[in-house]
Amino acid sequence: MRIMGLDYGSKTVGVAVSDALGFTAQGVEIIRRKSEKRLRQTLARIDELIAEYQVGSIVLGFPKNMDNTIGDRAEKSLEFQEILKKRTGLPVVMWDERLTTVEADRTMAQTGVRREDRKKYVDELAAMFILQGYLDHNRE
């Protein structure tokens, strides 16, 4: 079974999945929402991707503050975790995502992606970093 990584934001959800052996994370897509409060289509798309990739568990980015406290965005991620668990029946692990967006942006800059194009990909790449961190940690 594969593992899905999610970078949950106010208007987007970056999605990545592991390979079948759980060694590497690959970006899948960015799910875009019109409003933060509208989750129905987002959850339906996540359901489709779970079926398509035969996902057995989910890793959800946990955006703690730099001082390790839990702010508003992290609270919303915890709420999303509960929604995902109830809807999918899968285990949903929270994974510290501090600086993954910064790392994703830096990686794109180093590989020559133009600044104006980076927003198109940053959430998907952040989901890859979240999932890859989790996979690497579990392999150790």
CATH topology: Nucleotidyltransferase, domain 5
Radius of gyration: 14 Å
Query: What's the CATH architecture name?
Result: 2-Layer Sandwich
First-to-last CA distance:
19 Å
Q: How many DSSP helices? A: 5
Please state the average pLDDT score: 87
* Strand and helix order: EEEHEHEHHH
Number of discrete domains: 1
Just give the CATH class: Alpha Beta
Ranges where pLDDT stays below 50 over 5 or more residues in a row are: none
Strand content: 25-35%
CATH homology-level superfamily: YqgF/RNase H-like domain
Which helices and strands, and how do they pair?
Layout (H helix, E strand, L loop, with lengths): L1 E7 L3 E7 L6 E8 L7 H14 L1 E8 L9 H17 L3 E5 L3 H11 L4 H4 L3 H18 L1
Parallel strand pairs: 1-4, 4-5
Antiparallel strand pairs: 1-2, 2-3
Helix pairs in contact: 3-5
Question: Can you walk me through this structure?
Answer:
The chain is of the alpha/beta class and about 140 residues long. It has helices spanning about 40-55, 70-90, 100-110, 115-120, 120-140, and strands spanning about 1-10, 10-20, 25-30, 55-60, 90-95. Strand 4, helix 2 and strand 5 (about 90-95) form a beta-alpha-beta unit. The protein is globular, with a radius of gyration of 14 Å. The protein starts with a strand and ends with a helix.
